[in-house]
Specification:
Two copies of one chain form a homodimer. Chain A is α/β, with parallel strands linked by helices. The first copy, chain A, has two domains: 413 residues, no CATH class; 136 residues, Transcription Regulator spoIIAA. In chain A, a hairpin with a 6-residue loop joins strand 3 and strand 4. In chain A, helix 3 crosses helix 11, helix 3 packs across helix 16 and helix 8 packs antiparallel against helix 21. The N and C termini of chain A lie far apart (64 Å). Chains A, B: It comes from Marinobacter confluentis.
Chain lengths: 561, 561
C-alpha cells in the first residue's frame, strides 16, 4: 500500500490489458510526433544544442511512467522552462559553450533533487505561494519574451538579451542584414501553421508542426537551401547520450540554486494543474506530493542523460488524454518513439531550418498569452492585479527571475497584510430571534453595558495584536461598558501568541473594570484553551452561545435607531 | 484633527493644568534617578562610552514627548537593544574605536528612519510577525547572554564574544587573574540590590540602584579604590553633545541595514506592548502607527545627538505610570533631569565602578528571564514551542540576530503551512433541525448523491489549491455523487486565485458530471463574485442556506450509522 503510493506503477501494471495497451500506443505515437519538433525547438530556445531536447524526452518519460500518478501527463521540455533555463544560464556561462550545456544538466539535477525533497517532506503547499494572477501574468509575459527571442531566427539575424527591451535593441543594428531565405521559410511556416486548420481539415491541429518540419527539411535538402545561407540546425551527434552524473562543484552549483528553485516551482505548478484538470474528467485524483516526486525523478533522469529541465506540457498532455491514454505506459511508449527518432532521424534533422522551429515556437506560445486575464483580474481585485502587473512588467523589462520573485513577494506581502487585519464586527440581537448581526448593517437590539464582538477569523500571531487594538479601542470609546463578549464561531485556531494576547486583553480589561466573556468557542479550540491562564483567570464566563450570554448578563436591551 | 494625530502634543497641551504638572514632575524625578545608572550601564553593555547612554536619554525623550501617544512610556537605552547593538557592531568595527561609536549613531539613525517610514506607510502590522513565543524566547535567551557578558566586570577579567559559548570560553584562560576588589564590589552590590527590599523597606525597589551607585562612588573616591585596581568608568567628557548628522557612506551604512531593522522591530514590539498595557489601565488607547513615528523620531534624535538606539523601558515606564505621570510632559522633565545630571555629575561618574553597573544590569535582566513560558508554550502548542526553542538555542549558541531571524522564519513558515490547509468538513443535517454538523463528529442525515462541504476559512491563493484537492478527492471517492454544495459561512474573502480555483473546480465537476452549488455566501463575497465566470458558468445554484439546498435538491435522506 505504502510502496504503491510511491511507485504507482505497482498499482496499475497488474491490471494492464491489451485494450489499454492499444489506446496507450496510439496516444504515444501522436505524442512522439508532437514531441520531436517541440523538444528540438525548446532546446534551441534554451540556447542548447537541439539533441539535448531529444535526450530530455527519453529517460524523464520512463521515470515519470514509474512514479507519476497521472495517466495523461506528457513530460518533456517546455517553452517557459526553456526560457527560464536560458535566463539562469546566460549571465553565468558563455552561450554555446560546454560549460553552458553542463549548466543545464546541473539545473535539471538540482531541480530534480529539490522536487523529490519537497515531495518527501510534503512541501507541495509551497507552490501555493505562486498565486494564479502571478503565474498567469508570468506566462503571458514570458511568452512575449519568447516570441521576441525567436524573431531573430525568422529574420536570420543575430540577437541576444534577457528581456523585451534588450532583444529589440540588439536586433536594431542588424536589420540591414536580414536573410530573405530565412524570412520566406519562417513566415511561410508561420502562415502554414496558422492556416493549417483550413488547409488540412482532416489532420489534428497539434501534429501539424511535424508536417511543416518534414516539408521544410525536404525542401532544404532538395534545393540545397542550407548552402544558400538558410540557417539550419546542422549536424547533431547520432546515438543515445551516455548516462553520467555532473561532477559536484560548489562554485558551479551554488549560483544555480535559486534558478533551479524557480524552475522547480513553476514546472510543478504547471504540471500539477494540467494533471488535475485532466484527471478530473475521469473522476480520478492526483496526489500533488507524489507528483513532486515523479517530476523530481523525471528531472534527475534528464540530468543524468545530458538533458535539460522538464515538466508536463499542456498541448501534448491534452492530445495524450484525447487519444485515450489511460496509464503512464503511454509515456513509456513515447520514450521508445523518441529513442527511435534519435537513432534514425538525426541525418534529416541536420537539414531542419531554424526558422521552422522558431515559427513553431511562436505559434505554440502565442496561445499562452492571456490578455483578458489582465482585465478580469483588474475588475475582480486591485491588489491581485497589482501583483500581476508587477510580474508582467518586470518579466518584460528586466528578467523572468525578477518578475516571478516580485510577484511572489508582493502576493505573500499582501496576504500577510490582509490576514493581519481579520474581519470583526460589533453585533446585536435581531429582535424576536436568537440571532445576532452586525450593528452597522442591520436593525438590532444592543445594550450599552454589554458589547458583543464577533471575530471572523482564526487568531494567530499575525492578527493577535490587531485584536488587542480593536478591543482596547472599543473599551476606550465606550466608557459605560461593563462586559465584553468575544463571539468566536469562526475561530478555528488560537495559537500561543493569540492566547497570550487574549490573556493580555483579559488582564487589561480587569484593570479597566470590564469583564471579558467568550461565547461560541468551537470544541477543538476549547480543548486547547482548557487549563490555560486565560480560562483560569478569565474575569467573565464562557457561554455556549451569544444568546446565552445575552440572557445571562441580563442585558436591558435598547433599540438602536 | 489630522495634525493632532501626528503631533499628539497639540491635543493634550492646551488642557495641561498645574495638577498634571505636579504629578508629571514627581514621576520625572523618579525616572531620572532610574535612568542615570541604566543609561550608563546599557551604554557599557553596548560596548560604548558611558556618556553615550546619557546622550541617548535627552533628545529622544523630548521628541517622544512631542510625537508619542502614550503618557506613561519612558524611552531611552534598554538592555536587549544594547546587546543587539553590540552584536551588530562588534563583527564590523574595532570595539572602543571611533568607528564603533559612529556605527551606533548610524544604527540609531537608520532605525529611526525605518520606524518613521513604517509609521507613515502604516506598516506596524509587520511587527506582528514577531510572535509571542519568539519574542519571549528571544528576551530570555538574550538576558542570559547579557548576564554572561557582565560576569567579566564582576570578576575584573577580560572577556569577549557574541554568545554564551564564546563568552565562557574567553573567560576560562583568565580565571587566574580575578580581581578581588572587583568581586567584592560586584557581588556586594548584587547582594545589596537583591536584599534591598528587606534592607530599605521604605525605598521603592526600582530606585535602589542609584543608592548602590552613590555608595560605591563614595567608597571608591574615599578609599581611592580606583588606584588600587578597581575598574571604574573613568573620565568622561562633561557638557552636552553637539548635534550632528552622521556622514552618509554606502559602505558604512549598508552592512548595518539588517541589524537596524531587527533593532527597530524588537524595540517597537517591546515599546508598544508596554504602552498598551499601561494605557489599558486608564482605558486609553495607543495608536501603533503613531508609536512607530514617535519611536522613530526618538531614534533619529538619539542619532543626531551622538546616542545609541532607544526604545521604551518596562521598569521605568511602570514607575512613571505608578507615580502618576499622565502626559508625555513627564518625559520632557526627565530629559531636563538627565541634562542636569550630564552637566554636573560627570566628575562623580568617573569614580563609578564598572562592577556596580554590571551588578545592576544582572539584577535588571534576570527579571526578564521567563522559564515558565517554555513549559507553558510546550503544553499549549508544539509548533509554537519549536519556533521558541529555535530562537533560544540560536541566540545562546550563535548570535542574537540568527536567533530572532530563525524564530521569525519558522513562525511565518508554520503560519503559511497552517493557512494552506484550511479546515473543511463534510456536513449532514441534524435530524429534526435546520442545522448541519460534521458527519465525523455527529449523528446526522446524509444523502449519497448530494455532498455538503463546509469551508471554515477565507479562500486565497495559499489554500486555493488545497480546496481543489479536497473537492476532487471527494468526487473521486464518491462515484454516486451528482451534486456538491460548498457551504461558505466562514468565507470572508475570495481572492483572484481562489476564484479561479473555484472556476476550475466548477469546470472539472462539469467534466465529472457533478453539479456545483454554493450556499451561505456572505454579502460582501457575493458582491465580489457577481458577474464573474464562476457565477455565470456555475453548473448549480447559489442557495441562501445549506438547508435551502437540502430541500431544493430533494435529497432523500439516509440515516448514517
Amino acid at each position: 500500500m505504502k510502496l504503491e503510493r510511491i511507485l504507482p506503477v505497482i498499482g496499475w501494471l497488474p491490471g494492464y490489458r491489451r485494450g489499454d495497451a492499444g489506446r496507450d500506443l496510439v496516444a504515444a505515437v501522436l505524442v512522439t510526433i508532437m514531441l520531436i519538433p517541440q523538444s528540438l525547438a525548446y532546446a534551441l530556445l534554451a540556447g542548447l544544442p537541439p539533441q539535448v531536447g531529444l535526450y530530455a524526452s527519453i529517460l524523464p518519460l520512463v521515470l515519470y511512467a514509474l512514479f507519476g500518478s497521472s495517466g495523461s501527463l506528457s513530460v518533456g521540455p517546455m517553452a517557459i522552462l526553456a526560457l527560464m533555463t536560458a535566463a539562469v544560464l546566460t549571465p553565468l556561462f558563455e552561450p554555446g559553450s560546454q560549460a553552458y550545456i553542463t549548466g543545464a544538466v546541473i539545473l535539471a539535477v538540482l531541480s530534480g533533487l529539490m522536487l523529490v525533497l519537497m515531495g518527501f517532506l510534503r512541501l507541495g503547499f509551497l507552490a501555493n505561494f505562486l498565486s494564479h494572477p502571478v503565474i498567469s501574468g508570468f506566462i503571458s509575459a514570458s511568452s512575449l519574451v519568447i516570441i521576441a527571442s525567436q524573431v531573430k531566427h525568422l529574420l536570420g539575424i543575430p540577437a541576444s538579451g534577457q528581456n523585451l527591451l534588450e532583444l529589440m535593441m540588439s536586433m536594431l543594428p542588424n536589420l540591414g542584414s536580414i536573410s530573405l531565405l530565412s524570412m520566406l521559410t519562417g513566415f511561410g511556416v508561420l502562415l502554414f501553421l496558422l492556416a493549417a486548420r483550413r488547409l488540412l481539415p482532416g489532420v489534428p491541429g497539434k501534429i501539424v508542426p511535424i508536417v511543416a518540419v518534414a516539408l521544410t527539411v525536404a525542401l532544404t535538402w532538395w534545393l540545397g537551401l542550407d548552402k544558400q545561407g538558410l540557417a539550419v540546425v546542422g549536424e547533431i551527434p547520432s546515438g543515445l547520450p551516455a548516462l553520467s552524473f555532473p561532477a559536484f562543484d560548489v562554485g558551479l552549483w551554488q549560483p544555480l540554486v535559486m534558478g533551479a528553485l524557480l524552475i522547480s516551482v513553476v514546472g510543478f505548478v504547471e504540471s500539477v494543474s494540467i494533471a488535475q484538470t485532466l484527471a478530473a474528467r475521469r473522476r480520478q485524483r492526483i496526489d500533488p506530493n507524489q507528483e513532486l516526486i515523479a517530476l523530481g525523478a523525471a528531472n534527475l533522469g534528464a540530468g543524468v542523460s545530458s538533458g535539460m529541465p522538464v515538466t508536463g506540457g499542456l498541448s501534448r498532455s491534452v492530445v495524450n488524454f484525447d487519444a485515450g491514454a489511460s496509464t503512464p505506459a503511454s509515456s513509456l511508449y513515447a520514450a521508445v518513439g523518441i529513442t527511435l527518432a534519435t537513432l534514425t532521424l538525426t541525418p534529416l534533422i541536420a537539414y531542419l531550418p531554424k526558422a521552422t522551429l522558431a515559427a513553431a515556437i511562436i505559434v505554440a506560445v502565442a496561445g499562452l498569452i492571456d490578455l483578458p486575464a489582465l482585465k478580469r483580474t483588474w475588475r475582480y481585485s486591485k491588489p491581485d492585479f497589482g501583483a500581476m502587473l508587477a510580474t508582467i512588467v518586470l518579466t518584460l523589462v528586466h528578467s523572468v527571475e525578477s518578475g516571478i520573485l516580485a510577484g511572489v513577494g508582493l502576493s505573500v506581502g499582501l496576504f500577510l497584510y490582509r490576514t493581519s487585519q481579520p474581519h470583526s464586527a460589533v453585533i446585536g440581537l435581531v429582535p424576536g430571534t436568537e440571532h445576532f448581526r452586525n450593528v452597522q448593517r442591520h436593525q438590532v437590539s444592543v445594550c450599552p453595558r454589554v458589547t458583543f464582538l464577533r471575530i471572523d477569523e482564526s487568531l494567530y500571531f499575525a492578527n493577535a495584536r490587531f485584536l488587542e487594538d480593536r478591543v482596547m479601542e472599543l473599551v476606550a470609546s465606550q466608557p459605560e461598558m461593563t462586559d465584553l463578549v468575544l463571539v468566536c464561531p469562526a475561530v478555528n485556531q488560537v495559537d500561543a501568541s493569540a492566547m497570550e494576547s487574549l490573556e493580555a486583553i483579559n488582564e487589561r480589561m480587569i484593570d479597566a473594570g470590564v469583564r471579558l466573556h467568550l461565547s461560541d468557542v468551537k470544541g477543538p479550540v476549547m480543548d486547547q484553551l482548557e487549563g490555560t491562564p486565560l480560562l483560569t483567570g478569565l474575569s467573565g464566563r464562557v457561554f455556549l452561545s451569544a444568546f446565552d450570554a445575552w440572557k445571562s448578563l441580563q442585558a436591558a436591551p435598547v433599540d438602536q435607531g
